[in-house]
Design a protein that fits this description.
11 strands; four-stranded antiparallel beta sheet; 6 helices; about 300 residues; alpha+beta; five-stranded mixed barrel
């Protein structure tokens, strides 16, 4: 075996080793999430103690909030999007992510006994709406997804457009399963966090030089869509930090990412459906681990 071929073999071995390690970690992490979901009892918002809790209720957009998914413009409680461009490298063509983002806006979870604010930052989210569609421009000119599920998958094989748009959403008023860190915050009503963000942004606008210095990354003297999104995210982060710093007096309660590393999950389903989904993913991880480790063993044995 000459030098170039030997290098290719070792490159393949390194790839298989990485796949083996990753699939084992993925399986372990997914199974641990499954056990957490299955072992944690469901609490009621009205009577829940502060700490690590599980809720099931309806997701509701905050009053006076206009949380819409960026690509489709559809109102939702949470969104994540990705824009990919088809690029050619030699004879091969692949999709490269050029823009992406995830919602940081809080929303309300209402279980019929009470309401709590959900801060979705850092959550593993399993949404109900998953849309894929294609276009010829970097930003979609058609804002209503026209390909879902199998339709979207099939269109990928025949689409000649150079851009692919992917969007995931939690829909308003649908059932949401949530597990995370639950605590009380004082001094702010459940209606006010988004209003506080708007007021903070209004204050920042009074000093345009400072605003541009912080967020005008391309230095063109104007905040474009992405730069304004970063400004809004920074405002939300500051408002949330201010809320957390306030004394723990009676007020609203917030479900957010645990500081001790435990799972923070949001899903548009009930507990049992989420458990089944996690089990299937853990099983897929086992299959990937067995396949990659077997291939790695064979490669090493035939060097």
């Amino acid at each position: 075996m000459d030098g170039p071929d030997r290098a290719k073999v070792w490159f393949l071995i390194a790839g298989l080793a990485g796949a083996t390690v990753y699939s084992f970690y993925y399986c372990f992490l997914t199974w641990r999430k499954n056990r957490v979901v299955g072992d944690t009892p469901t609490s009621r918002v009205r009577s829940a103690a502060q700490g690590y809790v599980e809720f099931t209720g309806r997701g509701v957009i905050l009053p006076n909030s206009e949380n819409k998914a960026p690509l489709s413009g559809i109102p939702c409680t949470w969104w994540r999007y990705k824009i990919e461009e088809r690029r050619s490298t030699g004879r091969s063509r692949s999709w490269t992510t050029i823009k992406s983002g995830t919602s940081a806006a809080p929303f309300i979870l209402d279980d019929g006994t009470g309401q709590c604010l959900v801060d979705p930052r850092g959550a593993d989210v399993y949404p109900s709406a998953n849309d894929i569609w294609y276009g010829s421009s970097e930003w979609p000119s058609v804002c209503i997804p026209n390909g879902k599920g199998v339709v979207g998958w099939l269109s990928a094989a025949f689409a000649n457009d150079d851009y692919r748009y992917t969007e995931h959403r939690l829909q308003p008023h649908e059932q949401v399963y949530a597990i995370g860190s639950f605590r009380s915050l004082g001094g702010v009503s459940v209606q006010s966090p988004e209003r506080a963000v708007t007021e903070l942004l209004r204050d920042w606008k009074q000093d345009q030089n400072s605003l541009l210095a912080r967020f005008d990354s391309n230095h063109d003297g104007v905040l474009d869509v992405d730069e304004w999104d970063r400004a809004r995210a920074a405002a939300r982060e500051q408002v949330t930090a201010n809320l957390r710093a306030q004394p723990q007096t009676p007020g609203i309660s917030v479900l957010s990412k645990p500081s001790d590393g435990r799972a923070f999950l949001l899903a548009a389903s009930d507990e049992q459906t989420l458990v089944r989904r996690l089990r299937r993913r853990a099983a897929a991880g086992v299959v990937a681990f067995v396949g990659s480790s077997s291939a790695l063993t064979w490669m090493l044995a035939h060097l």
